[in-house]
């Protein structure tokens, strides 16, 4: 059988289980397991993903269950990992690559930008690359240098890539299944400090796969709208809760997908309030927030009572563990920004 | 018991069988050449003559503005042709940007092979249908692709070998290293062909490496390295055929260094007189791959007028076809720019496409 | 003598020459020559920069004049080039690295982001890296795939890097001298299709070195402001000329430096007109224009009569030569955007 | 005249002298060890004992929450110590993230060496003053830095050698390849020390390479490769000292592979039982670098109580100093986040700093 043909499910679909407390890490692991069981062409590969199950245990047990050819400990070379994954995808497999930490994806940048993003276009659609690149990203876990980068702005500016990031346990599962099922390459950014966040949840098979490219309104509000994604979603929800004390009713939009970008949902939410703050962890200058703010302004200008403001990481290299709390956008900084939305002129 | 008896240290591969013979392998003009199949030599001859003509025609097309650029493989036809012919139909070829000729020799439509260099699109042929990867412009980046594809085929139980081509300059890139290492660790059915043509644009080999030969790099990955006279088409063909057979039989990857020479400038845009002498070029032209084969054929009484004529005719037919078809303006649809970025265009791309269409309409109306 | 000590000028400063027609390529070459003559610690390195003088001839004659140790043909490996340049800068030299084309800088991305941008900060200022990275960028020269990328958005989002780009012959010289003189790493983006643009000019020694980080108003206007940089500057000037026919008086700001970003000059120019269009060649989504538009909006919101619009390359991989003219922002597209600045509501 | 007599093909370096002896070089327990200077052995012994204690203390500090993380070099002290001692004062050391001990052995303040792992800043010592590059977290990226620095020194006419450390896993990265190639082409005075400790986190050497040894990679660059028992401190010291001397004398770079073992888990956060057996660890502990040296010293009657006591006392003093000083809260100024991004902060950074300062003031007032 050619690997280009998606394999038949190797085992029957599990019976729907009752929801139970599940971490995002477990949901991601389940998504990989279910995808591999459902489709023999899904291959997991990366540094330490096999025997160890990954440094965050996202691939735990997969090598034992599916064999080392399906869940492979590669040599230590990120360009080689992604480059060979490109070749595997060319042959018809669906590789799921793990980059151990965000900053360690940089050696693979050329393969990502010059090949992963372009192969379909280069070949007039003849050679799509159904590749998922999992990248744990962001800070807040006390990691030493190079372990807390947020690199999404590099990827979202690269046409040909989808860029998604979950903020909930449920989305972690659904978006990862969707990413693996996609015929386009997806950069799947995992907010590493949410790995241990929990929810009552269990996987449904056939998977509830949300389409990539849909934002979700996590909270409706009437005063102003927080637009955010990934690790900053819980922070924004917390800020919205705290804002009630100040008399503000804040909405929160979780983008989930940076590319494709769901303009309709964002624009509708912002038009409803006339004020918006974009929140993310990566450096602000040239970050995702710039695009989001510019785009909101283009679409909603006459509905805006104040400029769209941004709350982001400072324009500095990611700080050492003992100082990172000063860098990360927290509740206070978000509320300060909301306070600057020129209420007097409303 | 010493440290070295412990579980973690075992004598690994023996290095000796991996080491290349420092004297490049040759067949033409040697006694072994007598054993070569006349039919094979005839086919190689036809392909070389055709290849040379193709290079000449493509270069002419650059002067007529029909190609944006052409990196000629004149002088390197033996490697180009042998690479294509060493593969079976089910195998994959991974060419570098200079290897249009190998692509054509493998059977891809010569016009489609030139799409990139003509500039109407990036790749003109269907890689899956032809089992030829796109010509790779970023040097050495195609090598890990070849390894991944070969590995995918192997774990799928399919009988597929990948042959990847790269230049001497390309061996300096990290991708070269990572690809060879993955191939060796995975025991992937892949053959790496380094065409050492003496230069990377203007940079001579001595500024590129201090190694005894590029083939010596093989031992550091645990695969065999072979050095071959890259202008001896019979030798290159034999070495590659053996390496492909070895890969097919589960023997793992091989690194082949073919020593050859880029007779023309780097591309039509380059001025090679800035970095090398006419004497050097002339010396290599005296060892031209076609001339070497002709001498062999002649020595064995195989170079008759019929063979010459057939080769010349086929070459002219190819060139004429190319000339004619390249005179036609390519069909261009600017809206196609948005068609293949994703399986489904995003909303933003649809808007941009609409904008471009409106502009084009306005242009036509004015 | 330790290389850390800037060398004494190896030859007397040339007598001021009368202006003569000079291409940007020649001015860049002159800047390198003068910098090398003035400071023995300046080393030029890259692929083909020595004997050949670079594929664009920017380093022409330098190896002959200063020797191969000062202008070095390196092995073909961009990460190695930048990585060894980092080590040379650690020792106190001032390497000037040439990346042959924009897309071929990607293999060096990890060295750039993880080391070049961070070494000073990592070492509390003990180890600054006085490095210049020259990258020819942009399209319009009929280059085949990978020869026309615009990668500035990746660099400007990377704290620790300066990012500059000249649009005129004079600035090419001055900014390159300034970049080499800077104690910080500078990504020097050379608009390759302006290499052959000409002006009457000649170098002055001691060099007139403009400070990095100052935008310049190339043309004042009253109707709207075009904000742009690099290869799009001449296009914007042409658009401003053409706009007169439509009755628009357009100003043009040439940023010259994306990092540091000259907010004062830009904000003043936009406030004066109340309308702005940001123009650049790279893909719009997450491009430099997003930051510029977002920032202008934050600073000038109540002066704006219309949202800041962007005219940029499409969100597609750079097109093949025969189609690139459709991708590149041209005069018409700029004027269309100006036309959409909601004049009826003014 | 054949193709191979042409100007572009000359026999390059002879491969034979570059090839490593496949049997790792050892001194301790061999007849040659008798020639070793007792003073040197004594110094190495003191450093090993001190180093072991340092590793133990640092690991203890992670349990107390005083360090964010510690990648221990327990079991690898011979390599760490020998690397530091092989260098002259003017030379540079380029450590990887595991090599804090080499940094300390070179004389850097032990607390400053731990700044990265404590988390108060990224690098705690002044690289120019100490001639020690920052501990490099992105694997292998420090290797081209070492080559560049050594090259810069050489072209400046200065007598400086660089020694760069990397793990077995790190040899798979493209940066390793590019660094070795540049070093060989430039004939740079640099020594590469690969500590092959059998694992890259959980990945064993067999999944990392298929090469006869990592030292065999040297031949592919045209530099000598040497294989040494990495737990034999005298052997590592001698091999590195020779390589440094060779580099200093203009002989170019050397690749040294030291075979050793990471006795503890990858870091305190790792669970090594997931990928290796206790037996394997025990086998290596039976070949402990300190025990090997003690056996040698004892055999030569050099291991007296005075030596033992001095070593233990120095080790305890180091540990005590570390304990005490690491109990102090580091001086932290959040505003320093903006101080070193550029020589002069940009306007944007000044505004961000002002914002942070205002927040901190507000925090204090509430
Ligand atoms: C990653 C990358 N860097 C730089 C270039 C620019 N470039 C194109 S061809 C070439 C020289 C290639 O030399 P070699 O590998 O020997 O191949 P040859 O041209 O001799 O066939 C260079 C530097 C490129 N295409 N890709
Ligand atoms: C470029 C890069 N990729 C991945 C990592 C994550 N990582 C840290 S240590 C390590 C294993 C290193 O193994 P080895 O080189 O053998 O050194 P050792 O830990 O054994 O000293 C990995 C994968 C990294 N630091 N840098
Ligand atoms: Mg070449
Ligand atoms: Mg290791």
From TrEMBL, chains A, C:
Biased amino acid composition, Low complexity: 1-12
Listed GO biological process terms: branched-chain amino acid catabolic process; response to nutrient
Domain Transketolase-like pyrimidine-binding: 22-197
Protein name: 3-methyl-2-oxobutanoate dehydrogenase (2-methylpropanoyl-transferring)
InterPro entries assigned: THDP-binding, Transketo_C/PFOR_II, Transketolase-like_Pyr-bd, Transketolase_C
Keyword Iron: no
Cofactor: thiamine diphosphate
Cited CDD domains: TPP_PYR_E1-PDHc-beta_like
Source species of the chain: Actinacidiphila guanduensis
Automatic annotation (TrEMBL), chains B, D:
Keywords, alphabetical: Oxidoreductase, Pyruvate, Thiamine pyrophosphate
MF terms in GO: magnesium ion binding; oxidoreductase activity, acting on the aldehyde or oxo group of donors, disulfide as acceptor
UniProt-listed Gene3D superfamilies: 3.40.50.970
SUPFAM superfamilies noted in UniProt: Thiamin diphosphate-binding fold (THDP-binding)
Disordered: region residues: 1-23
Listed cofactors: thiamine diphosphate
Gene Ontology biological process terms from the UniProt entry: branched-chain amino acid catabolic process
CDD domains assigned to the protein according to its UniProt record, in alphabetical order: TPP_E1_PDC_ADC_BCADC (cd02000)
Domain of life according to the entry: Bacteria
Matches recorded under InterPro entries: Alpha-ketoacid_DH_E1_comp, DH_E1, PdhA/BkdA, THDP-binding
Pfam families referenced in this protein's UniProt entry, alphabetically: E1_dh
Residue span, Dehydrogenase E1 component domain: 55-332
NCBIfam families noted in UniProt: PDH_E1_alph_x (TIGR03181)
PANTHER family registered for this protein in UniProt: 2-OXOISOVALERATE DEHYDROGENASE SUBUNIT ALPHA, MITOCHONDRIAL (PTHR43380)
Protein name in UniProt: Pyruvate dehydrogenase E1 component alpha subunit
């Amino acid at each position: 059988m050619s690997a280009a043909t998606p394999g038949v499910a190797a085992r029957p679909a599990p019976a729907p289980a009752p929801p139970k407390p599940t971490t995002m890490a477990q949901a991601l692991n389940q998504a990989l397991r279910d995808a591999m069981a459902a489709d023999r062409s899904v291959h997991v590969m990366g540094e330490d993903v096999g025997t160890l199950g990954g440094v965050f245990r996202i691939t735990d047990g997969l090598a034992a269950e599916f064999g080392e050819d399906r869940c492979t400990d590669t040599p230590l070379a990120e360009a080689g990992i992604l480059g060979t994954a490109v070749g595997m995808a060319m042959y018809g497999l669906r590789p799921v690559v793990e980059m151990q930490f965000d900053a360690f994806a940089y050696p693979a940048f050329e393969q990502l930008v010059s090949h992963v993003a372009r192969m379909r276009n280069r070949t007039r659609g003849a050679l799509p690359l159904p590749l998922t690149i999992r990248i744990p990203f962001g800070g807040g876990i006390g990691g030493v240098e190079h372990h807390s980068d947020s690199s999404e702005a590099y990827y979202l500016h690269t046409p040909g890539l989808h860029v998604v990031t979950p903020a909930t346990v449920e989305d972690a599962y659904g978006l990862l299944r969707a990413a693996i099922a996609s015929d386009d390459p997806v950069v799947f950014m995992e907010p590493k400090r949410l790995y241990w966040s929990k929810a009552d949840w269990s996987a449904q098979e056939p998977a509830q796969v949300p389409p990539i490219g849909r934002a979700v309104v996590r909270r409706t509000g009437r005063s102003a709208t927080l637009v955010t994604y990934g690790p900053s979603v819980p922070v924004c929800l917390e800020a919205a809760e705290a804002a009630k004390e100040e008399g503000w009713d804040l909405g929160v939009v979780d983008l989930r997908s940076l590319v494709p970008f769901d303009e309709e949902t964002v624009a509708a939410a912002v038009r409803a309030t006339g004020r918006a703050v974009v929140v993310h962890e990566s450096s602000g200058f040239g970050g995702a927030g710039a695009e989001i703010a510019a785009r909101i302004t283009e679409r909603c200008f006459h509905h805006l009572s104040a400029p769209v403001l941004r709350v982001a990481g400072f324009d500095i290299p990611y700080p050492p563990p003992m100082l990172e709390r000063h860098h990360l956008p927290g509740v206070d900084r978000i509320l300060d920004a909301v306070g600057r939305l020129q209420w007097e002129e409303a | 018991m010493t440290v070295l008896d412990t579980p973690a240290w075992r004598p690994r591969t023996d290095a000796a069988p991996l080491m290349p013979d420092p004297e490049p392998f040759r067949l033409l003009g040697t006694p072994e050449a007598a054993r070569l199949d006349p039919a094979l030599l005839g086919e190689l001859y036809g392909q070389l003559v055709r290849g040379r003509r193709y290079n000449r025609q493509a270069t002419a097309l650059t002067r007529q503005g029909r190609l944006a650029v052409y990196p000629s493989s004149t002088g390197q036809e033996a490697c180009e042709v042998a690479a294509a012919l060493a593969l079976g139909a089910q195998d994959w070829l991974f060419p570098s940007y200079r290897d249009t000729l190998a692509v054509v020799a493998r059977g891809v439509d010569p016009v489609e092979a030139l799409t990139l260099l003509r500039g109407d699109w990036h790749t003109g042929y269907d890689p899956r249908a032809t089992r030829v990867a796109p010509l790779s412009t970023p040097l050495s980046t195609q090598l890990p692709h070849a390894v991944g594809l070969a590995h995918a085929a192997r774990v799928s139980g399919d009988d597929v070998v990948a042959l990847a081509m790269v230049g001497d300059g390309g061996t300096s890139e990290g991708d070269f290293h990572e690809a060879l290492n993955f191939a060796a660790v995975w025991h992937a059915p892949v053959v790496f062909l380094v065409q050492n043509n003496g230069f990377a644009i203007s940079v001579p080999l001595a500024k590129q490496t201090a190694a005894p030969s590029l083939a010596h790099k093989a031992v550091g990955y645990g695969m065999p390295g072979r050095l071959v006279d890259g202008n001896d088409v019979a030798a290159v063909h034999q070495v590659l055929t053996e390496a492909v057979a070895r890969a097919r039989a589960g023997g793992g990857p091989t690194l082949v260094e073919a020593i050859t020479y880029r007779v023309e400038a780097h591309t039509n845009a380059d001025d090679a007189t800035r970095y090398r002498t006419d004497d050097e070029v002339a010396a290599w032209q005296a060892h031209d791959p076609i001339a070497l084969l002709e001498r062999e054929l002649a020595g064995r009484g195989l170079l008759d007028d019929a063979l010459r004529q057939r080769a010349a005719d086929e070459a002219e037919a190819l060139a004429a076809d190319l000339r004619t078809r390249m005179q036609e303006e390519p069909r261009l649809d600017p809206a196609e720019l948005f068609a293949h970025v994703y399986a489904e265009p995003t909303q933003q791309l649809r808007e941009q496409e609409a904008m471009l269409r409106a502009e084009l309409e306005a242009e036509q109306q004015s």
